[in-house]
Amino acid sequence: MGFVVGDGAIIHCAFGDAPIPLDVIPMTPVMVEGVPAATILDMIPLVNIATFGMCNTPSNPEVAAATAAALGVLTPMPCVPVVVDPWLPGAPTVLANGMPLCTEESICMCAWGGLIEVVEPGNFSVLTE
Asked: I want to staple 52 with a disulfide (CB 3.0 to 4.6 A). Which of 13, 29, 58, 101 is the partner?
């Protein structure tokens, strides 16, 4: 059980240096506290999930190249999230347009290894079971 995630929820990547708001495009009829509720498919890079500032993982090819050029000194590069899988777990019994809603317990992964999690759901009144 957890709170439903709404537009403007704060999310964070383990390898980014700044938390950001989740941008939910209002395509679902479900609203929480006056904003659109997020589904598990609200994970499109640079649409729903903006940049987390600078990326700090050597598994990112740009960071690896910059680090090699700096003779092995970790050199962060601008974050461009590469999210290919939906937020999981979703709320299996609460659907919007046939998709489970995203909850504060949902996570997704960046292809470079960063765990993206909900820091603050943007809603503190609607819980799922």
From this structure: 13
Cα–Cα dist 64/117, whole Å:
24
Q: Has residue 26 been placed in a domain? A: yes
Block residue for tokens 């899988």:
85
What's the rounded Cα separation, in Å, for the pair 26 and 47? 12
Residue with tokens 């006056």: 34
77 vs 114: CA distance, rounded Å: 14
* Predicted confidence (pLDDT) per residue in 11-65, tens digit: 999 999 999 999 998 887 888 889 999 999 999 999 999 999 999 999 999 999 9
Asked whether residue 96 is domain-assigned, the answer is: yes
DSSP-derived letter for residue 84 is -
pTM of the model: 0.92
Whether the CB-CB separation of 7 and 122 falls below 8 Å is answered with yes
pLDDT of residue 129 exceeding 90, the answer is no
Enclosing domain of residue 109: 10-51+81-120
Q: How many domains does the chain have?
A: 1
